[in-house]
Design a protein that fits this description.
heterodimer; B: alpha+beta; 7-stranded mixed sheet; 28 helices; 36% helix; globular
């Protein structure tokens, strides 16, 4: 499986994402500079955390105009996997690939701490190896992570199982405690917590490993000839039957 | 008028008329005006210094030159008061790859990997503009690390503020913390440790000391040298503006509040991050001859210092410096402290590499000069020579002062007693107690041993600092093994199986009471903290924060404290490899507590053996290593009871210290201890309580012998003591090893119940649920800061230089203090 990690000017978790994927999946990972438009050679792309363009104007607001976003858009349309972590999540909402927006934390401070999350849906390729209702520990580190969307969108997200994870102890004032959301097709996932910082016991948690393992298993179980011709079935149509971490173990 | 032409091959033609003296830039005062009106005084030069400049140059300096001498001969750049003392520090050892004199010191981890580190103060800017002052402090120290070719891996911050009962202190504290996070989080380097201490002596002059640590291949050290005649000199990064002009002289002025805010720089962490990546990439190409941050005194100091290190000269064409404002004069360009700029000397012919790299990162680069061999710093502006000064005179031969040193210790005057005691309205008007028994008596009339424990745990200097650390990204780079809150942080080193342990320490109270021992304790405690996690201390960096060096009493403190540090460094084998001196930390005539802060780096050979400071399980034995001590001299309890630092610095015997530390390291290495924490601020009782709190595990200490002085036994801050949790099976081995190491060891009690119980046969001092201790310890700082947490209505009013306004402010809060004193309420929180 071929992974790409996008590097924007100001990204600072790109190296962490590369290391996590390499260590957890054993796959090779390319760092992709923000000017590269073509991502057709990759099965999955990660938009990492950091402060792209210094978070100036609004976090993610400038990065969304980068050439690489065209490639990310194409991958999303082709049903390939797009994962946005922290600043990557902010970029994805700014780019319209995910609904809602990330506002300044309600207490106005940056917050970095290990945070318990509840897995709300495991129908997506990102969370397939988790159980619904499972509580996992993943660190957050952000100043602008308060998830916001209008009531109608929030209702839709909940009804269509598109809230991937939510906070058990809301650290930033996110509406409905939302920590991560999926697109309609289920192949684009953005979350504020950092699964790449929770992949080994010495980090205080290895609960993030299964995000990458789930993605790998999804990609490797796909027919080889998937060439972006049709959109994948929407998330709501899929059944949630996968058991916890069976094929790639921790 | 000399003329300059650039030839096809990229070489500048030698400029004719070099021997003629530099001209006065239109609009600048003439050399005669400067001499006659003594304008040099505003530039930071004394009469004698100005006369020396004129004599050495053989003419009167023009305004640009006088300004350059002013900043380079400032205390901040020249270390003119401290040099005679700093030279006594041990600076060498087999582990030292780079000692003082470069942008940062470097030590060898022993496997081809090296660690570069340095700490620097940003006290004065932070007093005026706390967010930007702290942020640019972090940005500046970051650049010092990556200019050595090192990839930064961690920040630590040592902070000192006045009591949080003051609204202005809360404003300063909140914004300094936000500024540190604002820069460090954005550049993606974790802040893994540090301290925050509160004492009234720092009210008007807070201390903000930032340390950065980076990793590099031992063979890949880059220096700040301008060598190779003809090599081109570039400025990269931000454009030069008028911000921060006079920052260095400002840092050497007595009263930061009397200075204008324009001397404070503004940071751009995004640009700092790009500059870091671009510089590291550029260094990796091998084209870089020398590189240096434009820190204090900007272009002036970077150019002069790089030329000085190479023993050569440098020539700059100032009209080629990219500027962000119009009509900037040579004087302004040379003295600007605009942030995020670097001076780079490249190998001639490899300029394209630099252009490609810089353009990739979207950064500006401009060729502004070249390396010469005539030993001059020569400045051109639109084909006119506007400055020419010998580099050796600017840097190497800068004045050195043997300032008058008071022969005897300055009397510690409790001027600050009233404010100090705001939190504990003690009857401090009783005068200075003469005996230790009197102090204990006074403390006991104020509170019981149990109440003292709860008070000390809630003291912001001791209480849980999560309020601070959760605003820092502590885990970015995914290599933080042990983050803030413990004795020392531990960070994995990529490309190595080892890790580094890091900490900062320094106790102004001890140094005020006994400068020599206090200085030694700063080093000893730092080394002890590293030993507690199992790391071997390698070397240290320091920030020596003192008052006005023109005060002989302050020089006594400085001379004694550095002598004490030297002794400790020698015995603990931790040379000084980098550092910084910050004098003139005073406001309205009041000097701060003398506060040398030590930042130490140690190596962890086996990361899986690292232990923490939390009790891990029930039924284990708790022991304390080191000498018994029941003296309250210098303790926080005595300070709280008396109202000011009292007595003497706590006892310290360096040989015992070394034995205790080496024993502790051996025990960690053999996995014979399950938790380790040293005895420091708040004494044995606080150490034990912290271990209970961190682990959520209780402890029972029932001494078999009665204790004559319970408060002394519980709260003495006697040094060289370490508490450890040991399993029953290992106790005998541990005892044998302690005997063999000639280190006293006492079994204190056993972990277990959900409560912490302590007492001797005469009395149970307390029986408290650990949950209650946790609550007290964890809520203290958030409670004290409650008024600035959450949405802020508006910032506290900006304090300009108006002295009258400031005094009004002080008076108002004094009145508040008195009112509160009458009501007798704890003043931790005031809404």
């Amino acid at each position: 499986m071929k992974w790409a990690v996008v590097v924007f000017p100001g990204s600072n978790c790109d190296e962490d994402a590369v290391l996590a994927v390499t260590q957890v999946t054993g796959d090779s990972v390319d760092k992709v500079w923000y000017t590269q438009r073509d991502l057709s050679g990759y099965d999955a792309v990660i938009l990492p955390g950091g402060f792209s363009y210094g978070d100036y104007l609004r976090s993610g607001a400038i990065a969304r105009f980068s050439p690489v976003l065209a490639g990310v858009q194409e991958m999303a349309t082709a049903g390939k996997l797009v994962l946005g972590i922290c600043n990557g999540f902010q970029v994805l909402t700014e780019a319209g690939l995910l609904p809602g927006a990330l506002l300044r934390n309600d207490h106005l401070q940056f917050r970095c701490e290990m945070t318990p999350l509840e897995v709300m849906s495991n129908a997506s390729p990102f969370l397939a190896d988790y159980k619904i209702g499972e509580v996992i520990q993943v660190p957050i580190a952000h100043g602008e992570g308060r998830y916001y969307a209008d009531e109608q969108t929030l209702d839709q997200l909940v009804a269509s199982n598109r809230v991937g994870v939510r906070y058990l102890r809301n650290p930033n004032g996110s509406l409905r405690n939302i920590a991560g959301v999926l697109n309609e097709a289920g192949n684009v996932f953005g979350l504020m917590p950092h699964p790449e910082r929770a992949v080994a016991d010495w980090m205080g948690s290895s609960d993030g490993r299964r995000v990458f393992l789930s993605m790998k298993r999804f990609v490797e179980s796909q027919p080889v000839t998937r060439k972006g011709d049709e959109k994948v079935a929407s998330l709501g149509d899929r059944t949630q039957t996968v058991e916890v971490g069976q094929s790639h173990g921790n | 008028m000399a003329t300059e032409t650039r030839k096809e091959d990229g070489q500048w033609a030698p400029a004719p008329g070099q021997s003629s003296p530099p001209v006065t830039v239109p609009g600048d005062p003439t050399p005669q005006d400067i001499a006659q009106d003594k304008l040099y005084r505003q530039l930071g030069l004394t009469d004698a210094e100005y006369q020396r400049v004129a004599a050495e140059l053989g003419r009167l300096p023009n305004y640009v030159e006088a300004g350059i001498f002013g900043v380079l001969w400032s205390e901040h750049c020249s270390y003119k008061s401290s040099k005679p003392y700093l030279k006594h520090f041990p600076t060498t050892g087999p582990q030292v790859l780079q000692g003082p004199g470069e942008n940062a010191g470097i030590v060898d981890l022993g496997d081809g990997t090296a660690v570069a580190f340095k700490m620097e103060s940003h006290n004065h800017p932070s007093a005026i503009e706390p967010y930007q002052g702290a942020a640019t402090g972090v940005g500046g120290i970051l650049r010092d690390i990556f200019t050595m070719g090192a990839r930064p891996i961690a920040f630590l911050d040592s902070l000192r503020f006045g009591p949080l009962s003051e609204p202005h202190t809360r404003y300063l504290f909140a914004n300094v913390v936000a500024g540190i996070g604002g820069y460090g989080n954005c550049v993606g380097i974790p802040t893994v440790g540090g301290e925050a201490v509160f004492h009234s002596a720092y009210t008007a002059n807070p201390l903000v000391n930032a340390m950065c640590v980076g990793v590099l291949p031992a063979a890949g050290i880059v220096k700040g040298q301008a060598s190779g005649v003809g090599n081109p000199v570039f400025v990269i990064g931000a454009r030069t503006g008028r911000d921060g002009i006079h920052g260095a002289t400002f840092a050497s002025a007595e009263d930061p509040h009397a200075k204008e805010r324009s001397a404070v720089q503004v940071g751009d962490p995004f640009l700092g991050k790009l500059l870091m990546e671009a510089s590291l990439e550029l260094i990796a190409t091998g084209a870089v001859v020398g590189i240096q941050d434009m820190g204090a005194a900007g272009l002036t100091s970077s150019a002069a210092e790089m030329a000085s290190r190479a023993g050569g000269g440098i020539e700059m064409f100032l009209d080629r410096v990219p500027v962000r404002e119009t009509h900037m004069t040579p004087y302004e360009m040379m003295l600007s402290e605009s942030q995020e700029r670097m001076l780079v000397v490249l190998e001639r012919g490899k300029e394209d590499l630099a252009l490609t790299t810089l353009h990739k990162w979207g950064l500006e680069i401009a060729e502004i000069g070249r390396v010469t061999n005539d030993g001059q710093l020569r400045l051109w502006f639109h084909d006119t020579k506007v400055g020419e000064m010998p580099v050796r005179l600017l840097v190497d031969e800068a004045p050195v002062y043997n300032r008058p040193v008071q022969a005897s210790p300055p009397l510690w005057l409790p001027q600050t007693a009233q404010a100090e005691n705001a939190q504990f309205p003690a009857e401090s008007s009783e005068g200075v107690p003469e005996s230790e028994a009197a102090v204990e008596q006074r403390a006991l009339t104020l509170a019981s041993p149990e109440q003292w424990l709860l008070r000390l745990l809630a003291d912001p200097s001791i209480a849980d600092k999560s309020w601070v650390f959760r605003q820092y990204d502590t885990t970015v780079r995914a290599s933080t093994l042990v983050g803030p809150g413990g004795d020392a942080a531990v960070v994995k080193v990529s490309g190595s199986r080892k890790g580094v342990a890091l900490c900062t320490d320094g106790n102004g109270r001890y140094v005020a009471l006994n400068p020599r021992r206090g200085g030694a304790i700063a080093v000893a405690e730092a080394a002890r903290n590293l030993s507690c996690v199992g790391a071997k201390p390698l070397a240290l960096t320091d920030c020596l924060n003192f008052g006005n060096p023109e005060n002989p009493g302050v020089m006594y403190q400085f001379a004694e404290a550095t002598a004490g540090m030297t002794e400790a460094c020698q015995i603990l084998n931790t040379p000084v490899v980098s550092g910084n001196v910050s004098f003139y930390n005073q406001s309205y005539g009041q000097d701060i507590l003398p506060t040398p802060v030590v930042g130490m780096v140690g190596v962890v050979d086996s990361l899986d053996k690292v232990v923490g400071g939390a009790f891990t399980c029930q039924g284990a034995v708790v022991v304390v290593f080191g000498p018994q001590d029941t003296s309250l001299r210098g303790s926080l309890l005595a300070n709280e009871a008396v109202g000011f630092p009292w007595g003497d610095a706590p006892a310290l015997r360096l040989e015992m210290e070394a034995s205790v530390q080496s024993l502790v390291r051996a025990l960690v290495d053999r996995r014979l201890v399950q938790a380790v924490h040293d005895v420091s601020e708040g004494g044995l009782a606080v150490t034990l309580a912290e271990m209970c709190i961190a682990g959520g595990v209780g402890l029972t200490v029932a001494l078999s012998e009665p204790v004559s002085s319970p408060l002394g036994w519980l709260y003495s801050e006697g040094q060289s003591r370490v508490v450890a949790q040991v399993s029953r099976e290992d106790l005998e081995v541990v005892e044998q090893l302690a005997v063999a190491a000639d280190v006293p060891m006492i079994v204190l009690g056993e972990t277990g119940t959900p409560d912490m119980t302590m007492g001797d046969p005469a009395e149970v001092w307390w029986h408290l649920p650990v949950a209650q201790l946790q609550q007290v310890y964890r809520e203290a700082l958030p409670k004290a800061m409650a008024t600035v947490d959450g949405p802020l209505p508006a910032e506290f009013p900006v304090r300009q230089s108006d002295r009258g306004e400031r005094q009004d402010l002080l008076r108002v809060s004094d009145e508040d203090g008195r009112r509160d004193l009458k009501t007798g309420k704890n003043q931790g929180v005031r809404s």
